[in-house]
Structure formats: C-alpha cells, structure tokens
Write a structure and sequence with these properties.
mainly alpha
Length: 133
C-alpha cells in the first residue's frame, strides 16, 4: 500500500513538473525578454536539473541494478562527477533568476546594482521591515 502511495506521489509530481516545463519552454532558451521571462527560464532549468538528477540517481539504478550502475559511474573518478553537470545546470538557472530579478528593479535604482548585488535591493530593507512591525 505504501509503495502505491509513493508511486502516486511521484507520478503526480512528475506530471506537474512536466506541465511547468511545457509552459516555460519558450523562455528557457530565449536570452532576451523581461525579468519574468528570465525567472521563468530559471525555474525551467531548476526543474530540468531536478528531474535529470532524480532519473540519474534513482530511476536508472533501479532498472539497471545498483551494482552495475555504480561500477559504470566509478569509471571516471570521483564517482560524484555527474553532480557537476547538475550543478552547472543549476548555476545557469540561478544566473537567469538573478538576472530576471535585476531587470525588475526600477530603472532609476538598477544602475546601483548588478546581478550579484540585486539580492540586497532595496538597501533600506531593514527600515521597511521595522515599519511593518
């Protein structure tokens, strides 16, 4: 019974993620566009990396068998080399997300920030939080 519930949860997750990929596919490879397009692209690539990593580490060993799978992986040292590929995809995703966020900063403030410092916009964030309390 537990296995059926787990299979249902995984299937539901996969269907939802595939729908998000279909919806965001146009923004994934386009380099131009608004901040929202870049955020959509970042979400697309995060989901792609998540699906690929899950398939690689969970599904393939299940069908191939754990021992032959890890033997195949260990041909190249270190055995966690596939994670580097997934991390690169996530790096692209994070860059697209931050670029999209940077594009959403008002024009008059954007010149004071770049994609690495945009996360700290606005500078007076502490004052805003204190005012709300």
């Amino acid at each position: 019974m537990i296995v059926l519930i787990l299979e249902f949860v995984v299937a539901a997750w996969l269907v939802i993620m595939m729908l998000v990929l279909i919806a965001f596919r146009r923004s994934a490879l386009a380099l131009g566009g608004t901040g929202i397009h870049h955020i959509m692209a970042g979400v697309f690539w995060i989901i792609c990396a998540s699906i690929l990593r899950g398939v690689f580490w969970d599904v393939i060993p299940f069908f191939m068998g754990a021992e032959p799978f890890y033997t195949m992986i260990n041909v190249i040292h270190p055995s966690t080399w596939p994670n580097m590929i997934f991390y690169m995809i996530m790096g692209v995703a994070g860059t697209r997300l931050m670029y999209g966020f940077w594009l959403m900063i008002p024009d008059e403030d954007r010149a004071a920030y770049n994609i690495f410092t945009a996360a700290f916009y606005p500078k007076k964030l502490r004052m805003i939080i204190r005012e709300k309390q």
